[in-house]
């Protein structure tokens, strides 16, 4: 190998090495910052009192939590919204067992717009591309001019339970808020 070629080769290797030393910490810093955002998202939250939920009429609740990036903590930010649907009235005995509540993510599974409640038809509708869902979150097809429901799956059902507050004895709805990938027929958790 000629001396000039060897020197060229060595200087290019040194250049690559220096770029890696400088670049890798920078890239991992940015990735860590991105990973940190929404770090408070995946948590059980108390979102509503059972007595405030009318039977068969969806109620939207915000999901509040701390959002943290590499530089700042933003407490009590709106991380998302959830639709609560109460399915049956409570009875006198053990209402936390008998009253069923379903919680759906308000994020449309198609492309992520906010799903709204159509009070007239009492069903869910996405304003962006007119995906329709029943109160059970299932896709509704063949409706007034909508040839095909653009949503690839039903609304995302979230884990939800009823708990009795130890101090007030009121029954509250608790939800585990999670985000899922859009545009897929199956639910895939966002990481
Ligand atoms: S984003 Fe909801 S229908 Fe397209």
Question: Nutshell version of this structure?
Answer:
The chain is built from 2 helices and 10 strands.
Could you explain how this protein is built, in words?
- The protein is α+β, with helices and mostly antiparallel strands.
- It is elongated, with a radius of gyration of 24 Å.
- The model is unreliable at 27-39 (pLDDT under 50).
- The chain has helices at residues 3-36, 95-98, and strands spanning 44-49, 59-68, 73-86, 101-105, 116-118, 123-125, 132-133, 157-158, 160-164, 171-176.
- The chain has a domain at 44-176: Rieske Iron-sulfur Protein (3-layer Sandwich).
- It binds FE2/S2 (inorganic) cluster.
- FE2/S2 (inorganic) cluster binds at residues 108, 110-113, 126, 128-129, 131, 150-151.
**What proportion strand?**
25-35%
* CATH domain fold name of the domain at 44-176: Rieske Iron-sulfur Protein
Helix fraction bin: 10-25%
Distance between the termini: 50 Å
Number of helices: 2
- Global shape: elongated
Strands of the widest sheet, in order across it, are: 2-3-4-8
Return residue spans where pLDDT drops below 50 for at least 5 consecutive residues: 27-39
The pLDDT mean sits at: 83
Structure summary, number of beta strands: 10
Gyration radius, rounded:
24 Å
Please describe the topology of this protein:
Blueprint: H1 3-36, E1 44-49, E2 59-68, E3 73-86, H2 95-98, E4 101-105, E5 116-118, E6 123-125, E7 132-133, E8 157-158, E9 160-164, E10 171-176
Antiparallel strand pairs: 1-10, 2-3, 3-4, 4-8, 5-6, 6-7, 9-10
């Amino acid at each position: 190998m000629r001396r000039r070629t060897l020197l060229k080769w060595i200087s290019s290797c040194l250049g690559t090495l220096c770029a890696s030393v400088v670049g890798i910490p920078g890239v991992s810093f940015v990735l860590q910052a991105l990973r940190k955002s929404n770090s408070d998202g995946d948590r059980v939250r108390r979102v509503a009192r059972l007595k405030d939920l009318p039977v068969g009429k969806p109620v939207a609740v915000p999901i509040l939590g701390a959002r943290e990036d590499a530089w700042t903590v933003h407490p009590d930010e709106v991380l998302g919204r959830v639709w609560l649907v109460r399915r049956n009235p409570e009875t006198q005995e053990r209402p936390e067992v008998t009253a069923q509540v379903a919680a759906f993510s308000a994020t449309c599974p198609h492309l992520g717009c906010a799903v709204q409640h159509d009070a007239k038809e009492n069903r869910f509708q996405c304003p962006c591309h007119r995906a329709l869902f029943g109160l059970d979150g299932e896709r509704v097809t063949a409706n007034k001019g909508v040839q095909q429901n653009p949503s690839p799956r039903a609304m995302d059902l979230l884990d939800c339970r009823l708990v009795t507050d130890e101090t007030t004895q009121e029954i509250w709805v608790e939800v585990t808020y999670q985000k899922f990938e859009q545009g897929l027929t199956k639910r895939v958790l966002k990481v």
